Structure formats: structure tokens, C-alpha cells
Amino acid sequence: MRRDEEGGEARFIADRMLGRLARYLRILGYDVAYPAPCSDALLVMQARREKRVLLTRDREIIEGAGSYSGYPPVVEMRSQSVLQQIEQLVGEGWIDRARNPRCSLCNRALKEMPHWEARHLTPPFTHATQVSFLYCGPCNLILWEGSHWDLFRRRLGRLLASSR
Ligand SMILES: [Zn+2]
To answer: What is the count of structural domains for the chain?
Structure first.
């Protein structure tokens, strides 16, 4: 897997056209910034400042590569299909397998929630049968084995495995 300049795991920033990709990558556990609408120059500056790989479908950003000093690494997403975009990132070595999931809404790493605390946030049967819960407090998002998010995450994980 590719590394960033300091040998860490690559982190990403997605342009406005890639909202679904940003959410899917977060579910897979990758750190993806998805800033509010802003100019290309600001997007590039944030990528550079935070040492993120810029994911984009915007020709102007790609062609502007020479005009900003210290341009961040840029990956041009070739397909409009989010699943093909993920396959491309696997094929080019940017991502490999699923990590600990992050919140699809805000990008924070999900935290373990104590079982008793999840009682108020999950259906009774779920609470009685599940042993662990992951959550994002600020977004009120909760994930457990077999939940909608968990099953979706597994499907994406299989896609990663089959794309390698
Ligand atoms: Zn969140």
C-alpha cells in the first residue's frame, strides 16, 4: 500500500463531486475529508496543509497541477460509479483492506460504546443479542454486527478483496 510523505497511511480529501466515495471510504475506515463547497485553490491548499491525497473528477484541478507550488498528490477518478472508483483506488494501491470504521457523516473514528449505554439507542432484541456497539456521539450513529451499516461495510470489504 502506498504511504504518505512521512510513511503513514494515506489520508484523502474528496472534491464535491465525490461525496458517495468519501462516505464509502470512511465506512471502510479511511480518513477522508470532504470540505464544504469552496474554490479549487482552497481545496488544494487544505490537501497540502493536511497532507492528504486529493481525489477529484475535476479536469481544471488536475490540469492546474503545475500552477500551485507543492501540489498535493492527485488521483483523477476515471469513473462516475462509486464502486469502480473504489476498484481504481485498490488497483492503484491507495487502499487495500477495511480498517476500523469511521463515521460516514463526519469522518471521526467510531468508538466502542458500553453495552448498557447502547440500551437507549438500539431496539431491545438487538441490544439483548449483540455484544459490542460502535458509535459516533456527535452524529448519533451506531453500528453493530448485522446492522444495515455493518452489512454494507462487509459488502464493500468483499469488493476490496476481489479488486486486489
Ligand atoms: Zn460522526
So the answer is: 2
